[in-house]
């Protein structure tokens, strides 16, 4: 509901209304990562070889989800959504910037998962009706029908809001565990671990460790900006921080590793590596997993997109301040459906996916650095919630915008672009985490200087 100043009431969840258990939070974040997109990421970084891909996967996951735990703590302490919290660092009106970023990225992730699930549906339609699978002549029809069907599933899944997310995650996590165990058995019946360990991609397709870190960071950091949307529903600190950290890492490691192993195993079996065939549907088909595997892939897309769409809807609500969360969820789901069709007309799915990841890494890192430093160091974990919709309050800054945050974000994005062209950084440690650290230091320094002058 809008207030007289048009900024909207702050939707803080009181402690008495928080009912998410440790298991609910853990399952939410396992389900967020135990899905098609994570499998696909594992397949993409297979271009590094197993050892390099494994090392970068573990390091990136631990670092990224320590940031997730910190952001989850913010939601637990305040009861506020992630984008509402950015009003304190970016300003009441300046929070439009991170809200737009979140809206775009989570619609994008919903589209990615939908596309992969729709690809699985095209294989099902082939088995049921004899339609061509996606990638074959005439296969676009099956994919298009799959996108529409998946979007209907998503509309149903978000219709009950947070309760539907919890229900979907509880059911989905069991299916995920069964599927991954099954997939692991099939892969290791086909090739040995020694073959996977020693396999190397063709030189012209090889990915550097720095490039892999940036790809993984972009994938992992997306959840950091959604952490508070879920941790605000628990009244226990451990549920918000520890459960989020462990659940997100378990989902990432388990599914990315199976995507990595399955992609390498398929490359060894076929004696040919094609990163365009890293999606779970193609690999599951080539490994002969059949009908049931496709069903599970489709269902896990719904578990992941329950989180994606909830976060996109929260961002839209913070931007408009007039739409209810339910209406926002319907709007972002319909937009995501339209976006899912883009790879059919513009380029290959892999090309669009990698470009999407690069864009996410560029804009998300600085945003995360800024809002974490603002809460933990500048405000020492104390925000005045009553000022989050107050014109000329402490978070109003200049005309509702903290121009220091905007400046630091812009400079950091420029530095990311520049570092991507510095081979020593881009090929070894990547630009993303360097830029996050840079944004933290720069924001802290400039804010301290401005406070002294005031």
UniProtKB/TrEMBL annotation:
UniProt xrefs under InterPro entries: CodB, Pur-cyt_permease, Pur-cyt_permease_Fcy2/21/22
Organism this protein belongs to: Secundilactobacillus odoratitofui DSM 19909 = JCM 15043
Record family assignment: Belongs to the purine-cytosine permease (2.A.39) family.
What's a Gene Ontology MF term here? cytosine transmembrane transporter activity
Q: Which Pfam families match?
A: Transp_cyt_pur
Keyword vocabulary terms for this entry: Membrane, Transmembrane, Transmembrane helix, Transport
The record lists the membrane-crossing segments as 39-68, 96-118, 138-159, 171-191, 211-231, 243-268, 288-311, 323-346, 352-378, 399-419, 425-446
Print the organism lineage.
Bacteria, Bacillati, Bacillota, Bacilli, Lactobacillales
Top-level taxon: Bacteria
For membrane topology, the record states: Multi-pass membrane protein
Q: Which PANTHER family match?
A: CYTOSINE PERMEASE, CYTOSINE TRANSPORTER CODB
Q: Where in the cell is it found?
A: Membrane
Question: What's this protein's name?
Answer: Purine-cytosine permease related protein
- A GO CC term? plasma membrane
**Major place of residence:** membrane
């Amino acid at each position: 509901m809008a207030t007289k100043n048009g900024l909207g009431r702050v939707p803080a969840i009181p402690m008495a209304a928080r009912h998410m258990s440790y298991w609910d939070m853990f399952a939410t974040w396992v389900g967020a990562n135990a899905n098609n997109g994570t499998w696909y990421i594992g397949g993409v970084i297979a271009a590094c070889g197993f050892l390099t891909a494994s090392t970068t996967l573990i390091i990136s996951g631990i670092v990224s989800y320590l940031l997730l735990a910190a952001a989850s703590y913010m939601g637990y302490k305040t009861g506020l959504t992630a984008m509402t919290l950015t009003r304190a660092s970016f300003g009441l009106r300046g929070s439009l910037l991170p809200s737009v970023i979140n809206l775009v990225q989570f619609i994008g992730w919903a589209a990615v998962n939908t596309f992969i699930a729709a690809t699985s549906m095209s294989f099902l339609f082939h088995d049921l009706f004899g339609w061509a699978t996606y990638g074959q002549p005439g296969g676009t029809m099956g994919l298009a029908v799959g996108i529409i069907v998946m979007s209907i599933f998503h509309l149903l899944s978000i219709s009950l809001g947070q309760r539907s997310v919890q229900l979907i995650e509880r059911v989905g996590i069991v299916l995920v565990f069964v599927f991954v165990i099954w997939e692991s058995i099939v892969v290791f019946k086909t090739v040995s671990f020694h073959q996977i360990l020693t396999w190397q991609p063709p030189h012209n397709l090889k990915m550097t460790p720095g490039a892999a870190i940036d790809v993984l960071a972009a994938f992992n950091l997306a959840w950091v900006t959604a952490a508070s949307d879920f941790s605000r529903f628990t009244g226990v600190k451990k549920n918000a921080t520890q459960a989020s950290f462990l659940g997100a890492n378990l989902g990432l490691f388990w599914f990315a590793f199976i995507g990595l192993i399955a992609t390498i195993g398929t490359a060894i079996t076929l004696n040919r590596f094609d990163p365009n065939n890293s999606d779970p549907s193609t690999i599951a088909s080539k490994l002969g997993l059949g009908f049931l595997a496709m069903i599970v892939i489709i269902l896990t897309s719904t578990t992941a997109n329950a989180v994606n769409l909830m976060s996109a809807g929260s961002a839209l609500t913070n931007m408009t301040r007039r739409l209810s969360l339910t209406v926002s969820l319907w709007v972002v789901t319909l937009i995501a459906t339209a976006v899912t069709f883009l790879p059919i007309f513009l380029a290959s799915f892999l090309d669009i996916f990698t470009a999407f990841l690069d864009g996410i890494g560029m804009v998300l890192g600085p945003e995360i650095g800024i809002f974490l430093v603002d809460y933990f160091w500048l405000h020492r974990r104390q925000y005045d919630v009553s000022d989050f919709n107050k014109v000329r309050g402490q978070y109003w800054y200049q005309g509702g915008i903290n121009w220091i945050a905007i400046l630091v974000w812009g400079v950091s994005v420029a530095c990311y672009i520049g570092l991507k062209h510095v081979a020593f950084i881009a090929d070894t440690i990547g630009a993303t985490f360097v830029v996050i650290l840079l944004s933290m230091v720069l924001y802290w320094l400039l804010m301290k200087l401005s406070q002294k002058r005031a």
